[in-house]
Write a structure and sequence with these properties.
Number of helices: 9
Distance between the termini: 53 Å
Largest sheet: 6 strands, antiparallel
Low-confidence stretches: 1-17
Order of helices and strands: HEEEEHEHHHEEEHEHEHEHE
Structural class: alpha+beta
Length: about 350
């Protein structure tokens, strides 16, 4: 009991001492985007770069899906219209100089984008953006925010230490948010720019009343084909030896059960395996990560498994009597869902021998 009380006291003192600090230089290892200037006098306080990533670009205000919850039990919000992007993703988070408003900052970004030949796809401000307009990525049991839709708190923690400048900027309570999405056609590039004012006066009080700009840039690029397609013979051997095989070569549109064209090599091999083994029957099992509620992902994983069965029957002539489908949501993870890498491993299709 004494040890527990001491631990609680230490944690409480850590929170009391936690605070952001006003930087005098950019975060080490960070850089500006080559195609978009920074606002004069601002400092980079968080930076993330991924050679290949998925990013959903809002093209309309967020709307509630009251039958769906995110991983922190918030009512799920998503834009009615969006564009799913895949390519090189860079996120740069800036702390603006004092007395610069979110509106002033985003108007400067808008002017810079238009002057560079870009076009604005969507704009909103404050509560009209949808969701909780006073939250960033942190919090549960309420409504999702625009910040939460753009990136989860778990992802934020992945490249920011707790109570670091970046963490404070991306998890604090906020006011006066402004947002735009844009396209730079000549660069095959899409931009998301979110500005807001920090209102936190407790744990990140150094940033209170300061404006933050969060810039996401996605340069559309094809994914490098590094994975060797699993051959029919190997699939069959694995199912005979272990009863199942996990496949990562079947791709779906984000949050949908639409099979992408790049899935064809893996589907070809599944069909070949079934043709070579005419007595074989398989159960196609869809698996997801834990983004969203269990029930929502149960339905999504089921629809994706059904889509695979339908493709094998319709495109390859496999008898439907040899195939069954089911979805298990995120009930059987093979990695932690706390990082994008782990979630990617959990999104898979598994073939089980029957």
């Amino acid at each position: 009991m004494k040890k527990m009380l001491i631990g609680v006291a230490v944690s409480f003192m850590t929170l009391l001492m936690a605070d952001a600090s006003i930087p005098t230089s950019d975060l080490k290892g960070s850089r500006d985007l080559a195609y978009l200037k920074r606002y004069e006098g601002s400092m980079i306080i968080a930076f993330q770069h991924k050679r290949f990533d998925r990013f959903v670009l809002p093209l309309a205000a967020l709307k509630a899906d009251k039958g769906k919850r995110d991983g922190k039990n918030n009512i799920y919000f998503a834009p009615e219209t969006s564009k799913a992007l895949e390519g090189e993703h860079t996120r740069v988070v800036y702390l603006l100089p004092p007395e610069r408003t979110p509106l002033e900052v985003i108007k400067n970004y808008e002017e810079e984008i238009l002057s560079g030949g870009g076009k604005i796809l969507f704009e909103c401000e404050k509560s009209e953006c949808g969701g909780d307009a006073h939250r960033t990525t942190s919090g549960g049991g309420g409504e999702m925010s625009l910040s939460m839709f753009l990136q989860t708190e778990e992802d934020v923690k992945g490249y920011n230490k707790v109570f670091s400048n970046g963490y404070c900027a991306l998890t604090s309570r906020i006011n006066d948010q402004h947002y735009l999405t844009a396209e730079l056609p000549s660069d095959n590039l899409f931009l998301s720019v979110l500005t807001y004012q920090v209102t936190d006066s407790s744990f990140c009080k150094a940033f209170k009343d300061r404006t933050i700009a969060v810039v996401d840039a996605v340069e559309i690029k094809a994914r490098e084909q590094k994975m060797v397609v699993i051959k029919a013979e190997e699939m069959n051997q694995k199912i005979n030896d272990e009863g199942m095989i996990a496949l990562y070569g079947i791709y779906f549109d984000t949050d949908k059960a639409v099979i992408k064209a790049e899935s064809k090599p893996t589907l070809d091999e599944i069909a070949k395996m079934l043709e070579q083994n005419p007595q074989q029957k398989i159960l196609v099992v869809g698996h997801t990560d834990n983004e969203g509620s269990f029930e929502y992902n149960k339905g999504l994983s089921q629809r994706r498994a059904e889509a695979v069965v339908e493709r094998l029957v319709g495109a390859y002539g496999i008898s439907p009597k040899r195939l069954r489908s089911t979805g298990v949501s995120y009930a059987c993870p093979v990695a932690s869902n706390s990082s994008e890498e782990g979630r990617a491993k959990n999104r898979r299709v598994v073939l089980v021998g029957e």
